[in-house]
Here is the input.
Amino acid sequence: MSHPSSPPADAEARRAVAPVICYPTETLPRPDLGLYQRARAGATKVAEVMVPARDAAVFQVAAGQFFRISSIEGPQVGDLNLWNQHDISERFYSGKTRALHGTHVTTGERLWTNLPSLRPMATIIADTLEWYGIDRYGGSVHDVIGTRCDPYTGHLLSGDPYHHCCHSNLTRALAGHLDVPLPEAEAHVHDVLNVFMCTGFTRDTGQYFMKASPVQPGDYLEFFAEIDLLGALSACPGGDCSSQHSSDTAACFPLLVEIYAPAQGALAGWRPPARNAYDRSHGA
Here is the structure.
């Protein structure tokens, strides 16, 4: 009897089977980027929020407005949570966004809400790091694969508490905005879009890795709000994530969120997307 881990005689043939895309997106509704970009050209800035280094801040964006996340003082990555402003049980769904668009997102791709709503909540309309592509390590920027640095994993691995990781930053910021206890807010903090972070999976062990982000002051990622949004952004304690996160050793910098409103009539004919039309009968 062969050892359970011994390769079968047809091992190479099994490995050579071609992959199949799980969710072909040819029928996925396409955003009208031309409309969005024309509206953005005539938009005016209506608000801004500074996110302090190693901390988080909350912002609000109305449907049909734009928001830009910028590096301003030094290379810095950010962890982004988004919710429906009127019902925070509807929130960003990183897993389905990843399944539809891939491990990293850029211009023309969308952030999707969780089930049962499953609709676009924001569309990326500009990305100054789009040039980076995928490097020789399999790394790219703006990932939807990482979960956010958190005090539970940190304590598991090191035994030490660290309160300025992104999960805790987002929890404090949301609790303060909603004026609710920390445990209530924490239940709504979810897997993030890692803005500017350069990540991938190692090809030998399949482990999640990070490397120095290519972001520099002046770089930005800009979105069109498809629905009324409540956002929270944490300036990660890892800085540019070139060495480690969840510590006070990395050089860290603030991030800037700017909100722009289009001119009256610039989005003529546009409507926020409806919630998913599935009837939720589930075959019963």
Observations:
- Residues 166-178 form the longest helix (13 residues).
- Residues 46-251 form one domain.
